[in-house]
Specification:
about 160 residues, 9 helices, mainly alpha, single chain
Length: about 160
């Protein structure tokens, strides 16, 4: 394989890769490795990007958690798995997830449940509850959390249903 763009430096290649969205250290290293840059070029480039503040895995993890919770709330466990897929160190993941309280997680799960409960209003109650439960499971919420939310769901939504 040849360099990603002939004649381009590893640093320029990494900057192009960072332009579309924030990246992790490991994602940059993998991208440069695919471009057949040497280990020295990759290492030097990563250090230069870190010094410039262009890559920071702790910031990435924090922003990732904040963004996910604001756009498509999922459980801390699901966030942990998603961050691991981006090659974030476990200690940085733990640090970023400390910002998510149990109350926040429960509130997010309840909001997701309410949304789907309204969306499935054309179904009978048993099927409606079952489908809401499946949505919560797919977002990684715990059994205890889901059980409590599903028990409260009809009461919490009786004015809207």
């Amino acid at each position: 394989m040849t360099r990603i763009r002939q004649g381009r430096s590893a640093y320029d290649t990494a900057l192009d890769y960072l332009t579309s969205k924030d990246r992790t250290v490991r994602e940059i290293e993998n991208r440069l490795d695919e471009g057949n840059f040497s280990e020295t070029e990759i290492s030097d480039t990563v250090e230069k990007l870190k010094k410039c503040g262009l890559i920071d895995d702790a910031r990435y993890a924090h922003n990732f958690v904040e963004s996910r919770l604001n756009t498509k709330p999922v459980s801390k466990q699901k966030l942990r798995m998603q961050l691991a897929e981006h090659f974030i160190d476990a200690s940085l993941i733990d640090e970023a997830l400390q910002e998510v309280s149990d109350e926040t997680e429960y509130g997010n799960a309840a909001a997701v449940a309410d949304k789907y409960y309204r969306q499935f209003s054309n179904l009978d109650e048993e099927e409606r509850i079952r489908r809401v439960g499946k949505r919560l499971i797919s977002r990684g919420y715990t059994y205890d959390c889901i059980k409590k939310i599903l028990e409260e769901l009809p009461v919490r939504n009786e004015d809207n249903g």
